[in-house]
Design a protein that fits this description.
267 residues, Porin, 14-stranded antiparallel beta sheet, 1 helix, 14 strands, globular
């Protein structure tokens, strides 16, 4: 049953991408479209030793949506929604027998505000993310609502002719409101020291864009991975990316290693 649920989720993601690609081509031909610039992504992840030392593994598929809105004078608001599906044999309150089971994970919605250019090729970004306890308890969810404000900036290095950029971002995440017994209390800081380098017209290399450094304020532990991703612009409205991350230091363990891929359609 769990396998059929996961396959159904993958099929839905693939169908959405196919529909998105067709819609993106139609939008490219249209003079005006209310969906111009909107993005649909499907992410696939596989990781080992997920948050424990029980030798468990996890496969995850996430549908990620973006809706940018120009506000005038250089300001831009971007909405984002992540809908994950998880398939894992990790032990937890909702999987005590360490069987392979599938379930939806914790969904989140985010609003991010990008500023006008504050200096040559320098932009700031601030926003708020809200997690919903749709996944239940471990290993599928944390069992509580969380709020996560963030602050970052994006700076293209002067003299690099647009080839190199840094975009560090810091996010604080805190559990809020009522939570059931056995929930996971979250109080942590996440940091993405993003670096991007263009490699020709259609290729891009980035670090820490997807996986973050974590400082847990409850245990005072750190999780420091090495994360990198290669992006290929296959078509004007279709991008493919592959990435991997490995734990370097883990007094607050999350995973041993993970690989992932992304299909991105721009409308």
């Amino acid at each position: 049953m769990a396998t059929r649920q996961l396959l159904a989720f993958y099929s839905i993601c693939a169908a959405l991408l196919t529909a998105g690609l067709a819609a993106g081509e139609a939008c490219a031909q249209a003079a005006v479209s209310p969906f111009t610039g909107w993005i649909a992504e499907t992410w696939f992840y596989f990781r080992n030793n997920s948050e424990s030392s029980d030798g468990s593994q996890q496969a995850k598929a996430t549908l990620r949506l973006f809706q940018p809105f120009a506000l005038g004078s250089g300001w831009k608001l971007t909405m984002r929604e992540d809908i994950p599906g998880i398939y894992t044999n990790q032990v937890g309150t909702d999987n005590p027998g360490q069987q392979w089971n599938a379930n939806i994970g914790d969904v989140f919605a985010q609003a991010a505000l990008s500023t006008p250019q504050m200096a040559p090729d320098f932009f700031a970004d601030l926003g708020m993310r809200i997690y919903f306890p749709t996944g239940g308890l471990k290993p599928f969810g944390d069992g509580s609502f969380r709020v996560a404000p963030h602050l970052g900036f994006d700076w293209t290095i002067p003299g690099s002719e647009g080839q190199f950029a840094v975009a560090p971002l810091a996010r604080y995440i805190r559990s809020v409101g009522y939570a059931p017994p056995h929930f996971t209390d979250i109080n942590q800081v996440q940091f993405h020291p993003v670096i991007r380098a263009k490699m020709g017209e259609n290729w891009l290399f980035s670090m820490f864009e997807e996986k973050e450094i974590i400082y847990d304020m409850i245990t005072q532990g750190w999780f420091v991975p090495l994360d990198f991703m290669i992006h290929w612009q296959a078509l004007p409205n279709l991008s493919i990316a592959l990435g991997a991350a490995r734990s370097l230091y883990a007094s607050y363990p999350q995973y041993e290693n993970t690989v992932y891929g992304r299909l991105k359609v721009t409308f």
